[in-house]
Write a structure and sequence with these properties.
Layout lengths: L24 H24 L4 H25 L3 H8 L2 H21 L5 H17 L6 E5 L4 E4 L1 H28 L3 H31 L5 H4 L2 H6 L1
Antiparallel strand pairs: 1-2
Length: about 230
């Protein structure tokens, strides 16, 4: 049995650990339906496409998005400092994994082939480094019982947000270069539609998360999840 640790000053009574009438209604609309839609599409493409590479990447991408949404929901509705700290410590890994998989997906979708082994090694290396930080206090250095939030180290948070910005522009530049290099009109339309959807998703996800962290108002994170719906469309 997990030791719940210290409890926050304000604790909500929940059903199944996440459902409570005291939480903002938008919390459930932004987290559960978007995650469910993403996972359903991920499995549909995976099996419909004969378990192709692009189907596998999309399934991983939607799976990571679903895990991030569920983890975020737990931190919103739980009152145990130990549980929140445990879940919160995985946010950088899931957040960066979402951007790395988006980059991988973009390359495979547009070029219609797998990326190089060196690029795979580089992307995997970033995740390995992040996993290594889980056992340190580089990311979290305390817990605020009053606000019921983990206390993040600013320099570490800035580092992984900066990485996500770099990936955002990598995808943008890569997509634009491939768009102008393509001569087939239908392929150009496909690249443009994909690029707009992907960048709106990543942009809204970044803006809501970074602004929420900067203003210490995590209600703003809820709006960033709707970007997944745009991407799926």
């Amino acid at each position: 049995m997990i030791n719940p640790g210290l409890s926050c000053v304000e604790v909500w009574q929940t059903t199944l650990g996440v459902f409570t009438s005291e939480a903002p209604a938008l919390l459930y609309y932004s987290h559960i339906p978007t995650a469910a839609m993403a996972l359903l599409l991920g499995f549909f493409v995976y099996f419909r496409g004969g378990k192709s590479l692009i189907g596998k990447i999309l399934l991983l991408l939607t799976g990571v998005f679903g895990l991030w949404s569920l983890s975020n929901l737990v931190t919103w509705t739980n009152g145990s400092s130990q549980i929140i700290m445990f879940v919160w410590s995985f946010f950088p890994i899931l957040y960066v994994a979402l951007y790395l998989l988006s980059l991988y997906f973009t390359h495979v979708f547009i070029d219609e082939k797998d990326i190089s082994n060196s690029l795979k090694l580089g992307l995997s290396g970033i995740l390995v480094v992040l996993f290594g930080t889980y056992w340190t206090n580089l990311h979290l250095n305390g817990f605020d019982l009053l606000s019921c939030e983990a206390m993040e180290v600013d320099s570490f948070t800035t580092a992984y947000y900066s990485l996500s910005v770099g990936i955002f522009f990598w995808i943008l530049v890569f997509g634009i270069k491939r768009f102008y290099a393509e001569t087939d009109i239908e392929k150009r339309k496909k690249i443009l539609a994909f690029l707009v959807g992907m960048e709106l998703f990543l942009g809204s996800f970044f803006m809501s998360s970074s602004v929420a962290t900067y203003l210490d108002n995590f209600e703003l994170e809820q709006y960033g999840l709707f970007g997944m719906v745009i991407f799926l469309g």
